Amino acid sequence: MPTDPTHPHRLKLDQALDLVMSQRGQVVIPITAGDSSMIPHLRGGDAVLAIPPAGLPSCGDLVLFWQMDYWVVHRSLGPVVTRDGRSGLRTRGDGRNALDPLVVVDDVRARIVAVRRGGVWRTLDGTPARIYARLVAWHDLFWAAAGVVAGSVGLGRAVAAIDLALLRIAVPLVFPLIHGRIAAPPGSVAGEPV
After folding, report:
1. Are 124 and 62 within 8 A, CB to CB?
2. Residue 35 forms part of a structural domain
3. What span, in angstroms and rounded, lies between the C-alpha atoms of 158 and 181?
4. Residue 178's domain spans which residues?
5. What is the pTM for the complete model shown?
6. Signed CA dihedral, 110, 113, 115, 116: sign only
7. Which residues are CB-neighbours of 83 under 8 A, at least 6 positions away?
8. What is the CB-side half-sphere exposure of residue 118 using CA atoms within 13 A?
9. Residue 102 maps to which CATH number?
10. Which of 51, 77, 78, 131 has the fewest CB neighbours in a 10 Å radius?
11. How far apart are CA 153 and CA 41, in angstroms?
């Protein structure tokens, strides 16, 4: 269940994010140590470059949103309307086989346009990167559905292992070829978040 948007902790974090993005147009956000929800694309110690969202995120976009009492960077799998009529975004962490709870569009705080891994910044923009992102989103949707079906017969863990294994094989080979290196963004020193 989402935290009340008027909760003081959330208000302070939202205001700080809004202030930095309004002054700089972007913000560098570190990925929390130990976070594995976006493996193999992101892991603890990496960082992302976030910009204000411009409308509804596209299928495949990495988005920063509020969930429970913290920010999350996960992949947008597209808009959805639930059976009870609620609308929002379907999201998933690439490293998890389950879909996230429905994300209210107003809770999306930023779109991720670049990632830093091992001190190297890479862009997520451009036609090849957009195609790659959409293919990963389709992968995430397919394997999440396969996980639900397989879970009903006791094979959910096996499907989750196959899902992650495919990403762990493909991402190190394909990601660097498609996502070009870029200079460290302004506001970071040697690629480290400020």
Report:
1. yes
2. yes
3. 35
4. 8-182
5. 0.86
6. negative
7. none
8. 5
9. 2.10.109.10
10. 131
11. 30
